[in-house]
Specification:
Layout: H1 2-32, H2 39-57, E1 59-65, E2 75-79, H3 85-93, E3 98-103, H4 104-107, H5 110-116, E4 121-123, H6 128-143, E5 147-150, H7 169-177, E6 180-185, H8 189-192, E7 205-211, H9 225-243
Parallel strand pairs: 1-7, 2-5, 2-6, 3-4, 3-5
Antiparallel strand pairs: 6-7
Length: about 250
């Protein structure tokens, strides 16, 4: 009971700093997100926000690449999704500029709203027109050379750390633009901040990220997205099990 209480206190401590740092940086975000030409700078500031937050709260990030990525290339990144810390992790630890594509509920959170009106894209999967608009915007960004990051599980499932079946949207987008898909394994975030409680029993510690070898899609044809999704699923699952000793 005492350990659980201390972990909940740490979670509160984390989110207090999350909010304080955001409020300090908000004027800078407001200015940088006022013009598209400054979006990359805003994303860099978002990374700095995450770096400082992780340092203050005792979260130790470590990124490992299977092969070096081309910093100038456009990719579709597809991480697993077991914790709300995944958002902090990918925004902080990925050195690439990307647009984050996520469920519309995140856009209703005041802290995130400024990003989903500019850099990022909310997806309303329950509304056909909303989903169409999101994918139209995603096509536009990819066409303009902006990478996309999407959690293909579509949300955090009830059986963490077992992944939900992948949705095909990000794989179709990659294939239509002939872009490489980059699987990402996040093995630790579900331990740092479990889901399911109003105040989760979080904890400081390691937050590793493994960035896999890019998977080309140029020679794939319509219908191959199912096999591609299954391949990415297996890659992430196998690495997740390996990194957790399962």
């Amino acid at each position: 009971m005492i350990i659980t209480a201390l972990k909940k206190l740490w979670t509160i401590y984390f989110f207090v700093w999350f909010l304080l740092l955001f409020l300090v940086l908000y004027p800078a975000f407001f200015v940088l997100l006022s013009q598209k030409k400054w979006y990359r700078k805003a994303h860099a500031l978002r990374r700095l926000w995450g770096d400082v937050l992780m340092a203050i709260t005792g979260l130790r990030g470590k990124v490992e690449y299977e092969v070096p990525l081309d910093r100038g290339a456009t990719y579709v990144f597809t991480p697993n999704h077991f914790s709300y810390f995944d958002i902090v992790s990918v925004n902080t630890q990925m050195p690439h500029f990307f647009s984050f594509m996520a469920k519309k509920e995140l856009a209703s959170i005041p802290l995130f709203r400024i990003f989903f009106r500019t850099i990022d894209m909310p997806v309303d999967r329950k509304n056909k027109e909303g989903a169409k608009r999101a994918y139209y915007l995603a096509h536009k960004k990819l066409k303009n050379g902006i990478s996309l990051l999407n959690f293909p599980e579509g949300g955090i499932g009830p059986q963490v750390p077992e992944m939900r079946k992948f949705k095909l949207g990000p794989f179709k987008l990659a294939m239509e633009h002939g872009l490489d898909v980059v699987p990402i394994t996040l093995p630790d975030n579900w331990k740092r901040l479990p889901c399911g409680e109003f105040i989760p029993a979080g904890s400081p510690g390691k937050m590793r990220m493994f960035v896999h070898r890019p998977i080309p899609t140029k020679n794939l044809k319509s219908g191959d997205e199912v096999e591609l999704a299954e391949r990415v699923y297996a890659i992430i699952e196998n690495k997740f099990n390996e990194m957790n000793g399962l």
